[in-house]
Design goal:
With 139 residues, the chain is an alpha/beta fold. It has helices spanning 15-24, 53-60, 81-93, and strands spanning 7-12, 38-42, 47-52, 74-78, 97-104, 110-115, 121-126. The chain is globular and about 40 Å long.
Length: 139
């Protein structure tokens, strides 16, 4: 099997609010195939989808009751510490909750964490060990 991720789906409590967050705060636009039940956002090479949390649990056949730390985060890597600072400030002014201010971290990089309305964590980071191409894809 080829190693590949084509789609990441986040279960959200309020689809309209989540769509507004990703469009207004991150500046991403929903794809035309989005509808009242699911929102698709094109990232570099994969899709992020937003889906009602109860509907997602039902689709997967699992209990929708869950709380606390989700034990994962998503990451948006940039090319410098300055870019991290600038992006965190931008998303802060657009209403994102900054969970951790930008700072040097133990693994040798520089990062911050912001949360979407459902508490999903996004790390905004500069990793000096990670090479990115002109489109921001990992080399």
């Amino acid at each position: 099997m080829q190693s590949r991720i084509t789609l990441i789906t986040l279960g959200v409590s309020d689809l309209k609010q989540a769509q507004q967050f990703y469009e207004d705060v991150f500046g991403w636009k929903a794809l035309p195939m989005s509808n009242d039940n699911v929102v698709f956002l094109k990232l570099n090479g994969i899709l992020l989808s937003l889906f009602g949390e109860k509907a997602l649990a039902e689709d997967a056949g699992v209990d929708a009751n869950g709380s606390g730390f989700r034990k994962f985060s998503l990451a948006h890597n940039l090319r410098s510490e300055k870019e991290v600072d600038e992006l965190v400030q931008t998303v802060r002014t657009r209403g994102a909750k900054v969970v951790k201010e930008p700072q040097k971290v133990s693994w040798g990089g520089y990062s911050s964490y912001v949360a979407d309305p459902d508490g999903n964590l996004w790390e905004i980071a500069f990793n000096p060990f990670l090479e990115l191409d002109d489109n921001g894809n990992v080399v």
